[in-house]
Structure formats: structure tokens, C-alpha cells
Design a protein that fits this description.
This is TolC family protein. InterPro entries: MdtP/NodT-like (IPR010131), OMP_efflux (IPR003423). The chain has 9 helices and 6 strands. With about 450 residues, the chain is of the alpha+beta class. The protein has a domain of about 280 residues: Outer membrane efflux proteins (OEP) (Up-down Bundle), CATH 1.20.1600. Strands 2-3-5-6 form a 4-stranded antiparallel β-sheet, with helices on one face. The protein has a two-stranded parallel sheet with strand order 1-4. Helix 4 runs antiparallel to helix 7.
Length: about 450
Amino acid sequence: MSIFSKTLTVIRRLWVILPFCVLPSSVFSESSHPENTAETVISSSSIGDNLTLQQALALTLTHNPTLVAFSAEIRAREALTLQAGLLPNPVLNANAGNFANATAKGFDGDSVTLQLSQLIELGGKRAARIEAAAAGRDVADWDYEIRRVTILAHATQAFIEVLGAQAHAELAAQSLKLAQKVVETVANQVKAGKVSPVEETRVNVTLATAKSAKLRAEREWAVSKQTLAAFWGGSASAFATVRGDLERIEPLPSIESLNHRLKQSPTLRRWLSELSRQQALLHSEQAKAIPDLTVKLGGTHFLDNQDSVANVGISIPLPVFDRNQGGIAAAERHLDKTDAELRAVRFRIDSELNAIYQRLDAAQAEIENYRLTILPSAQSAYQAVQKGYRLGKFALLDVLDTQRTLFNAKAQYLRALTAYHQGLADLDRLIGGTVNEDSQ
């Protein structure tokens, strides 16, 4: 076997074993990123007449277009992580010496040289590159999680809005029904000559107002249903009503426990991952200051005497002028900037938590006040005046006034309940979980 053939054999063997000398064990392990492999997908056609919160959230999670777009970004970051771990390609050089020499026989050249060169990255460049790409994937994961909990919180708030609007529509229907009864009663009294016809005109105005309020409540209910259905690209006609317990109020956990859970907030975790990414990018820039080594292995075959020689060489840049000083300085400044942004995020979410908690605490107190004092008093006053009116002790104006007061109190109570549950959804979004975990 000629020296040239032996050289080519050595090149092939070297190229076979070379990648395994520099591949880290992580390349051979499976990706640690969890895939969403949910097999049960809910469709809008399976909702039924009564939509529950769980169904609404499942539809949103499955079909919301924004979440689908974020899923594609995560897959793109995973592809970049794969690309970051790839080795540089080898380079094959082929040269013919004394080209087109008329005296040469068998080939238009006096010698043929084949050379294979391979760049070997030094200073941990590849590991730093993989680390930065993996950190970028983690940031994308947390960006998705932030958007997911935000959209689910907004969908929950939209569901609560529908539940509240539905209750308002029912209350408006009750008010209209009661106004119709009052009109009938007064009309009979006018026919009997017991009250003035002016009283009938007055209650007719009240009836018209109740009809207008009912139509307005039904329109608001329809609009809120469409707003909710938009979270999964559906239609409000897919469900007739929503089912839920608006009056279910649970004690709030302590602010101390919520502050502890805030450490796992998706927003905070995202910026911690971004800080890790900037640190990895700094390591990558620092590694670029170390020059890479190029190994060359080849052989030359002389055609005139059929001799062959092997060629071995290395090359390495001399870091005399460019040691990536600018890249390192820029990466350090980006790291400082991210650290400052992380501190700002900590302060912002702490302030937001305290503000939401104070609103919820005040809403709980307001709801209790309506339950224990306002609603019982308004109901008692209305019943007493209604009974007294039948006995001639109160005027019609007193009946209408206490009726209006009672229904206004009920409407305000519903608004307080709606605001409370929407505030809970906002708190769930901030901490990235359910406030009352034990009740789930």
C-alpha cells in the first residue's frame, strides 16, 4: 500500500473519531424540554348549553391563536439550541501542481495534493454557545408561561363578566316582572277609584324604565358572551348560559404566604432566566478571546516517479490586536442592564401584589356589608312598605322608592362579587397559580 493510500486511511480514521473527542455527553441525552402531549382536546361543539369555567379555559388553552404562535417560538429556540451544538464542518483542499505541463503523462499535472483540515474550537466556545442557546430556550419557555397565565386570567375575568352580566339580566327580568305587577295593582285601584290616575302614569314610567334596563342588561350579557368566546375563536351562539357560583367567597391567604409564592412568579422566573442567558452570552464572548486551532492532514502524490509524502500541519491566529475586547465589554453592559431590570421587576410585582391584595380585602369587606346589613335591611324595608301600602299607611312613592333601593342594592352586590372574582383572577396571574390551592 502506498504512503498516499495510508495517509488517506489515517484521514478517514481521524475524522471518524474526532467528533467524539469533543462532543459533550449532553448531546447524546434526550431533550429535557417537556412537550405538550395532551390527547384530550375539547371542541366548541361539545360545550352544551351551560358553559363552565373549566370548559372555557380548556378551549382557550387549546385554540387561542396567541398561544399557538408562542409554541412555534419555543420550537424555534429548540432548533437554535441544536444548531449551537453542531461542530464546524471539515474542509477538503485538492491541488494539482505543474498544471497543464505538456511533458506529463497520465494526468495534466506533475503532483496531486489532498488535504483535510478541521477547526477545533478552544476555550469552551461550543459549550458556552450551547449554554447561551439553552438559556434562550428557557426564556422562551417562560415567555410562553407568562402569556399563558395572562390569557387564562383574562379568559377567567371574561367568564366572570359573563356570569355577572347573566345575573344582572336575571335581576332586571325580576325587576320588570315586579313592575308589571305594580302596574296591574295600580290599574285596578284606579278603576276602583281608590287612587288618582296620575299614580298609574307614574308606575307606567317605572315599567318603561324597567323594560329599558332589561334590554340593556341583555345586550351587555350578549356582548360579554362574545368577548369570552373570542378567546378561543368561537361564537357566543355555541352556549346559552354559563354555570358558576358567583357568591362563593373564600378567605384570602395571608400576604406573607403570597409574598413567598411570588418568588415562583412566571415574570420573575423569566427575568432570572434572562439573567442566566446574559451570563452565558458573556462567557461566550470571553471564550472568543481564545484563538481556535486548525489541524491539517493530507498527502502529496508525485506522478512522475509515483512517490507519495504525508503532510501534517496546524494553524492558530495570534491574538495580538483583536481579543474580542469590544464584544466582552458589550456583554458585560448587557448583563448589568438585565440585572437592573430584574430589580425593577421585583419591585413592580411586589407593589402589584400589595395593590391587588388591598383591593380584594376591601371587596371582601364590602361583600360582607351587603350580605349582613344592606341587603337584609333593604329587603325588610321593601316588604314593610309594601305591606303598609296595602293597608293604606304608605304612599305609592314609598313603595317605588324602596323597590328601587332594593334592586339597586342587589345590582351593586353583583358588581362587588364580579370585581372580587376578577381580582382573584388577576392575583392568580401574578403568582402563576391558584390563590386558594387547598380548595382545588
